[in-house]
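Dear colleague,

As promised, here are the two records you asked about, laid out in our usual form so they can be pasted straight into your sheet.

NAME FIELD: protein one
SEQUENCE, THEN STRUCTURE:
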Amino acid sequence: MNLKIKECSIILLALLVLISCKTQEIQKSEPDFIQLKGPYLGQEPPGMTPVVFAPGILSNDKIGAFCSVFSPDGNEFYYVRFIRGVEGSGRIYWMQRVNNIWVEPEPAPFAGDYAENDMRISPDGCKMFWRSWRPLPDKSNQEDRSCVWFSTRLEDVWSEPQPLRCPDGYLRAGYLAVTNNGTLYFPARREDSYGEGDIYRSRYINGVYTTPENLGRIINTRYSEGDLCVAPDESFLIVSCWNRPENRGVSDLYISFHNGNGGWSRLQNLGEPVNNEHEENCPTLSPDGQYFFFNRRNIATGKGDIYWVDAKIIDGLFNVIKP
């Protein structure tokens, strides 16, 4: 009996050693966190050439970061953290600015234990939307296809997450955008799609989201239109377009301006220095509209990072592209 207890003790000790080593390995993978003070994580504002946002703080060789959004007051920062090379490892993290000092990143309050990404906060800061593979209500298994979930801010607390419904069912979509009047723009694959993925719109009327409507061939093609950013006033939209013949890389960012009469100008490649031979996606604007954020992934190495650039690079295109 004593021998068995001794054997069990040895096994338990070995397990504790393994767990300790694994914990140390994970801790070593964490990006170095230093005290950050001021707006935009205390980073020096970019010029007209895109640069990595918060290098060495959000990511390193083992931990990656993509898809970012600031709260309207600039005091909260949300992004997706993942383990490089591990598919489905993405989790939503956030940082808060307290007394002008940014607190170390931690999982977002509404985040689940399943793969999640593509979050977007409404212009008024009251709703958070994101893409999740978590089980839908009354189900226990992870979803094969992602759905859009949302949480409502109740004072300083996010409500229990709920899947978003439209008249034809749960909204199965990706990276969306929210306008001032609550309209959602998003990429999806539906029966009326022209290609591998199209851009749709769902209006928010009397507290209900309408059936998604395709934006039409002026925006959508037989290729894939994906991640997008829409100005809060719907004056322009920026879309990640995949595999187009004129692309510089596998996916490039394109822009379209609203003509004020319900229509859009034809998408035009943002060009250099935003697009290059790699992949560009996850476009978003800072709350004050001064900076443009996006993700760039090196095709050769698979490594990607969040970039930012002065939003004047978009203003300069307005006179070139006639709405």
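NAME FIELD: protein two
SEQUENCE, THEN STRUCTURE:
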Amino acid sequence: MVEDQGWLAALDCDAIFSCVDRPWPRAALNLAAFAHLIPVVDGGITVNVAHGRLRGADWKAHIAAPSRRCLECAGQYDPSLVQAEREGRFEDPTYIRGLPTDHPLRRNENVFAFSAATASLEVLQFLSMTLAPNGIADTGAQNQHFTTGRLDIDQRSCRQGCPYSEQLVARGEDAAIVPTARHAAGEDERRNRACQRTTRVRLERRLRSVLDRIA
């Protein structure tokens, strides 16, 4: 999503389901939702653990699009961390170790069941937007509380002065924001694959040489 190939593929979509939890790709999705008018169906999970025991969990789903709340105003990513990820700090173990223990990058709770519930809410958000039953296409963001079983509806809009909802709507490439670059994790993966290819070629050559001598 944050490299050119993924970004261009995303711009061909009519709608996008978000399953990322990093600030940089979420910022890119926010730009796609408003500058390129591609609705982004997004969700998130928060788990509260104390002394190794589950105390609570919340999951929510919402749609980022013009006339709705953007992902930044919804608190789905911290804009101050976007540049940190672009600089590759999120792949730096020393940077990760310096973060608070409750930082999302250091947490490792098993949220499989909550992820399934979040995906369900996202699908319902999408169906509501596209089908508009009884003429209602926007029910607001939905926030489910695991402990109490309560479902909250949040219909707040973006904060005053939000650039996404006030300045970037339908600007497309004229928004003059470049959301893409080479991602550190992608660079590592490309290096690993290149190394694997080189190793495989060398092994194949050695095997052929051994087989030729035997023959």
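A couple of things worth noting about protein two: The domain at 4-181 is CATH 3.40.50 (Rossmann fold). The longest strand covers residues 53-64.

Best,
R.
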